[in-house]
Design goal:
Layout (H helix, E strand, L loop, with lengths): L3 H53 L2 E3 L2 E3 L18 H13 L3 H11 L10 H12 L3 H14 L4 H13 L3 H22 L5 H31 L12
Antiparallel strand pairs: 1-2
Helix pairs in contact: 2-3, 3-4, 4-5, 4-6, 5-6, 6-7, 6-8, 7-8
Amino acid sequence: MRSPHDCAASDDLRWRIQQEAKELSMAHQGLSSWIGEIQTAKNRDCALSANTKQDSIVRTNGGEVTRPNSSSNESISKPAYNTTCEEERIYGNKCFSEGKYSDAIESYSRCLRYKDALTSAVVYSNRAMAHIKMKNWTHAEDDANSALQIEPKHYKSYQRRCVARLSMGKIRAAMQDAFSAEECILLEIKNESDTCSSKSLSNAQSALDEIRKLRNEAESAFVSAVKRAPRRKVPISIIA
């Protein structure tokens, strides 16, 4: 027969077990609720991130690159997502035509991350022109150099390097570029005269006129530099 002391101890142990079970059940419910709140917040953040990224994607519409949901005062040089080399080039040209030369440079730079851009001198040459518009003469010269390494007969790159070098006072080098540009455009006109349309030939002739005008400017700058150069008397010895 159990003593009253043993009965009291057994009842106390039973009560403590019940209390611990109740506390564990409440803790489990609290943990489940906390996990649910975390998952809900995570899903909400993922949905917000997806919407933000979708608004930032550059899309093409009729061959023209556009940025959706952009306000008029928002920078159009925002980093692009999921774009191709051609889309970045077209967008750079659009920025250039609108006078947004810094944005054009950024777009051309993103375009040059693709291998496709390295098979033609066009992107480097276009970025050189954008640098010229911003008077970044050294960068313009460097980009023209890169373009000519890809296409040694690219007359536009010679023309743009001539402008950059002339602006930096590299007159002899600028004159050489002007002559090279003229030689390349004349060769292009000769090779394509039978296959090109009249419009293409007219554009080539206009380009040739611009190059010759640039060559005249380089020659005039050279003559002026020679006239400004200090003169020194050179002793002459006559040997009998």
